Amino acid sequence: MLLSRKGILAIAAVIDVAIHSETRPVSAKALAIRHGLPPRHLEPVLQALVHQGILRGVRGPRGGYELGREPQRITADEILRAAGTVDDNSEPHLPGSQLVGEVVLPAIAQAEKTFSAALGEINVDALVRRASRAQVHTGH
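and the corresponding structure tokens:
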């Protein structure tokens, strides 16, 4: 799988916020419930998204998260990059061999550039419209 679990979760969280934050911010608890996760798994990802300006945190009793800018200006690529800044101690480290450094990593880097360019063409607005057309039930 090319995308990490936290990357997929980050994209789903941003789409969820885009769908549900029209009337008020979306709480981390509501996001966690809708995605079947403990909030502690979601919070580092949400904070990384806030740090990159993709989401905006709203404090207070009715606080939560809303989009940091227009959905047309948020791409899947930048969401994945933000999610990639989250430390995940469960992911194993890569071996430091010559084969990995001189063959595998350069090949993967080239594939990632192509993949990143394609993801840069996908924005949150398009994903929200796709969810609407598919009548994806996201709960309230």
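(Above: one complete record from the training split.) Residues 10 and 112 are 18 Å apart (CA to CA).
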